[in-house]
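Quick illustration, no need to memorize.
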Amino acid sequence: MIKELWHSFPRLLEQKINALLEEAEPTPAKAFQLYKTCQNEGLWNESFEKFSDHLESFFAMARSERRKSHMDQLLDRPMSIAVYEGFHLNFRSGLVNNHSVTNIVSWAHNLMRLGHKTDSAVISMDVLSKTMHSITHPSYFEKAENIDFEDFCAAWKKTVFGLFGKKHDAEFTAIINELRWLNTQLKNEEQTIKKNGFVPTIYLTQTEIDWTEAVEKAVTLNREIPKYPLSRGPEKQRLIDLVRTISLYKIVQTSQHPEFSEQREKIRATILDRCARLLQECAR
């Protein structure tokens, strides 16, 4: 599970960061700007406090569910599309949930620690918190939405340099190079998906693929099933389940009890089905 998460880390991080805007609320300055706009457009003639209450209700809805009509019902008359576009929030005009940011920092810290097997200062909670703060509080000329992994890397590098100078350059370079390599792998896989319409549900190494193919062939031809090639055993849950099923199959294979005959065929079919699904759904 850790390997699969680590493999997808760059994309998952992008998604988590951008999802912060799903639950963002307008900054006080943005709320007042919207109030003045609606007032100047003749859409609202009551107090800012009451307008703020309506804004709170509107932004409490999931971003995907918000509609212009929801806000229109609260105003004196429907607003224009141009005015409604001003209700779009980014990291400069929106306040994100601090608890959600902390969760991202904790998740990223732990996955970096386990995935890269390091406790370097450059992946500390403090460093990642400051990195996230710079992303969610961009200056005027910095990117304020649609954050990609390279945006995170740039903010992270700036934070690390600001805190440590070049003290941890070697550690930082090793980690960021691996993550950028993972990001390149993900982009290649995404291009394959676009081209072939295939969405992998599990990532297998070539060794794991070769073993799965060998198991499928052995069971199909009623030959001896090869052992899992790594002494520590599989780490991915679907491979663990397959190994357990194979162990059960070997038990019923050697039994002469008539009740096991039917079970043997069912287990054999299960193994073949699991192998086929793994090979069909894995990213190669």
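The mean pLDDT is 89.
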